[in-house]
Amino acid sequence: MEATHAIAAGMGGIRTAGDLVMRVQLAKKLRIAEAKKYVAEKLDVTIDELCDVISMTEVREKRGFGIPHFEPDANVNIGMEAKFRIAEALGLRINSVERFKRLAGIK
Q1: Which helix (H) or strand (E) holds 17?
Q2: DSSP secondary structure letter of residue 46
Q3: What SS3 class is residue 27?
């Protein structure tokens, strides 16, 4: 986990797509290059765009994944709403999302 975190943080974490790549690496047991390719395909961007702050800020705002800074009038989702959107877009099972659904009676 420490190595995965270091690589994801080095990619820029939530400023770019580091957090998304890390989630995919852990959930699907992929190497970083494979995880980057998977995320890029799911988000319909290039691998280079995954590491670009401007491109990923636009993608995150458009898809409601959350961004690390406040932008007035931005489509910014935080917390569980962002996690729901990330899980759906990347085809992942996120434990906190599944627990929330179960406790809220959502199927």
Answers
A1: none
A2: -
A3: helix
Look at residues 3, 1, 14 and name the one whose alpha carbon lies nearest to residue 79.
Answer: 14
Assigned token pair, 63: 């898809």
Distances (CA, A) of 106 to 5, 79, 90, 100, 103: 31, 17, 19, 8, 8
Q: Which helix (H) or strand (E) holds 52?
A: none
Domain ranges of the chain: 2-104
Which tokens belong to 58? 């636009």
Per-residue pLDDT of the chain (107 residues; tens, 9 = 90+): 666 666 555 566 667 888 899 899 999 999 999 999 999 999 999 999 998 888 998 998 899 887 776 666 655 556 788 899 999 999 999 999 999 999 998 87
Kindly compute the dihedral angle of the four CA atoms of residues 60, 66, 70, 75, in this order, to the nearest 10 degrees: 70
Q: Please state, in angstroms and rounded to a whole number, the distance separating the CA atoms of residues 30 and 32.
A: 6
Helix, strand or coil for residue 57? helix
Q: What is the DSSP string of 65-89?
A: ---SS--TT-----THHHHHHHHHH
